[in-house]
Amino acid sequence: MAIMRVDVISIFPQMCKAIIQESILKRAQEKRIVKINICDLREYASDRHLTVDDYSYGGGAGMVLKPEPMFRAVEKIVGIRKKKSKVRIILLSPQGETFDEQKAKELSREKHLVFICGHYEGVDERVKENLVTDELSIGDYVLTGGELPAMVIIDSLVRLLPGVLNKKESFENDSFYQGLLDYPHYTRPRRFKGKSVPDILLSGDHERIRRWRREKALENTLNKRPDLLGKIRLSPEDEKVLKELTKRRK
Questions:
Q1: Which of 3, 9, 65, 208 fits a 20 to 30 Å CA distance from 146?
Q2: Given the residues 121, 135, 215, 238, the one annotated as active site
Q3: Residue 141: helix, strand or coil by DSSP?
Q4: What CA–CA distance (Å, rounded) separates 7 from 227?
């Protein structure tokens, strides 16, 4: 199986390096399922001050990341220019498409991803016009830069790669993977602060447990994110459960 390659272009590379050296991202790299490279944009500056930003033409507050270092970095990472079409080059930006589980699944099927971490007032528009294939946001709010969004997206898609998670950690029942929020989870002790684990989970009856978990997932979604229910295909059993749950709420 080919190793997925992920490159991150940043002016604060240490922010990213700390994250990729822990937990599941570290394990995925050790298993040679993914190779994550952090690129310091300042290495591609052309002056002795390692300048990567400048004032915005037309005035206004804040600085803009310059195009020359960004083009040099991307061209170095991608290699021969005609191969750029095989690489998804993703700019992290508040203006981008909102990232979700479907996008994570889509990106997890790619062989090579490059993430550009925006900063200050953003990047020169010519970077977007000539290099970027995707512009993504992780929500309708503004962060200092694109490093944390890049790490969120990489963590989300890497865990979907075959072999990254073992059966115990399987992502298939995670919230959003099948379109619903997750069901409640319990572990030892059986009784804590006057609350007990539901008896059904201790019954050993796998079919009853499956139905209970599905009902609780539907209930969680109905109560917290009802908008999700219109986006997924529900079985007749699901429809029946939702009808009963809706009755209880009235």
A1: 3
A2: 121
A3: coil
A4: 34
Counted domains in the chain:
2
CATH number at residue 58: 3.40.1280.10
Q: What is the pLDDT of residues 120-165, one digit of tens each?
A: 888 999 999 999 999 999 999 989 999 999 999 999 999 999 999 9
Tell me whether residue 43 is one of the annotated catalytic residues.
no
Q: Residue 67 in 3-state DSSP?
A: helix
Indicate if 140 belongs to the active site. no
CA distances (Å), origin 220, targets 184, 213, 239, 245: 9, 10, 15, 10
Q: Is 121 a catalytic residue?
A: yes
- Asked if residue 100 and residue 135 are part of one domain, the reply reads yes
Entry field: residues in the chain = 250
Please give the model's pTM, rounded to 2 decimal places: 0.87
Q: Do 88 and 133 meet the contact criterion of CB atoms below 8 Å apart? A: yes
The verdict on whether 159 is a catalytic residue reads: yes
- 8 Å CB contact between 8 and 38: yes
- At 120 the pLDDT is 81
Catalytic residue from among 40, 94, 101, 155: 94
Active-site residue among 101, 134, 135, 174? 174
What is the four-CA torsion angle of 191, 196, 198, 201, rounded to 10 degrees? -10
Residue that is last in its domain, among 167, 186, 212: 167
Task: Name the stretches of the chain with pLDDT < 50.
Answer: 81-82
